[in-house]
Amino acid sequence: xxxxxxxxxxxxxxxxxxxxxxxxxxxxxxxxxxxxxxxxxxxxxxxxxxxxxxxxxxxxxxxxxxxxxxxxxxxxxxxxxxxxxxxxxxxxxxxxxxxxxxxxxxxxxxxxxxxxxxxxxxxxxxxxxxxxxxxxxxxxxxxxxxxxxxxxxxxxxxxxxxxxxxxxxxxxxxxxxxxxxxxxxxxxxxxxxxxxxxxxxxxxxxxxxxxxxxxxxxxxxxxxxxxxxxxxxxxxxxxxxxxxxxxxxxxxxxxxxxxxxxxxxxxxxxxxxxxxxxxxxxxxxxxxxxxxxxxxxxxxxxxxxxxxxxxxxxxx
Length: 316
What we know:
Number of helices: 9
Structural class: alpha/beta
Distance between the termini: 10 Å
CATH topology: Rossmann fold
EC number: 3.1.1.5
Strand order of the largest sheet: 1-2-4-3-5-6-7-8
Number of domains: 1
Keywords: Hydrolase
Protein name: Lysophospholipase
GO molecular function, one term: phosphatidylcholine lysophospholipase activity
Helix content: 25-40%
InterPro entries: AB_hydrolase_fold, Hydrolase_4, MAG_DAG_Lipase
Radius of gyration: 18 Å
CATH class: Alpha Beta
Number of strands: 8
Oligomer: single chain
C-alpha cells in the first residue's frame, strides 16, 4: 500500500486547546496493533511531514496518534502574523497534549503506549512524562531540545530575552523573519536531498503550514523549560537519539540528562544532522529500528504477534 493510499484511512480532526486555540490531530488505527505510538513533533513542523514515517510504523503494527502544536502546522495561531512561532507558556504545549491524551488516546484502552518525539517535541514529551508517568511506558526522542545552541552565552542572553519578552512578547527574536525556504546545500537539518525537498514542497503546496522564526516569548519560555529539564527526574525510560552534526540543539545537555538517570540511554549518530527522522536511509533506518527495539524492551508486543500482511513494506 502506498503512503498516499494509507493516508486515506487517517482520521483527522481538531479539539480546543488552552484558551480555545484549535489543535489539529490525526489518528491511524491499526486493526491488529502491537501498541500505540504518539508522535510529538518539533518547532515549525506539522504531522503531515511525517507521512512516510507514519506508514512505516503502521506497517510495523502500531496505531499512530499525531497532532500539530498550537501556533504551527494546521493548528491555530495566537498572533496576527501567522509566521511568528509563538506560545504564551511552554506549559500550554503540555496541557494541549494532555487534552489530546484524555480525549483520544486514553479511551482507546491500548495495552501499550509509547512516545516518539523530535527536538522541541522531545522537550514537550519529557516534561509530559515527568508530569504523567503512568500514561506511556517508554519514549524514543530524536535530538530532544534539552538545550539550545545560542549565538551568545546563555547567561548573557537569557536575562535580556526575558526583559524584551516582558515588553513585546509577540515580536520576532532579533533578526527573525517570516518563512523563507533554504536551499538544500545550505540546510542544517538533513543530508537527504529527497526528503528535504519533499517537506519544502509540502510547505509550498500548503502555505498555511509555513512558519518563520520564534517570538521573544517563545524563546524566553523555551530557555526556562530547558533549565527545568536540566534537573528534572523522569522515571519513564527514554532513548535519546543524538545527531552528531547537530547545530540546533545542545548535545552536551542530552549527555548530561542521560548520565544522571541510568534508566535512560543515549545513541549517537555521528553523520546525522538535526532531523534524524528525515535523514539518509542508513541513519534514519537505524534510528527507527532502535526506537522499536527500545519499545519492545519496555513492553511492546513482539513483531511476530502482528499478522504478516500488516507488516508489508510501505512504498516510499
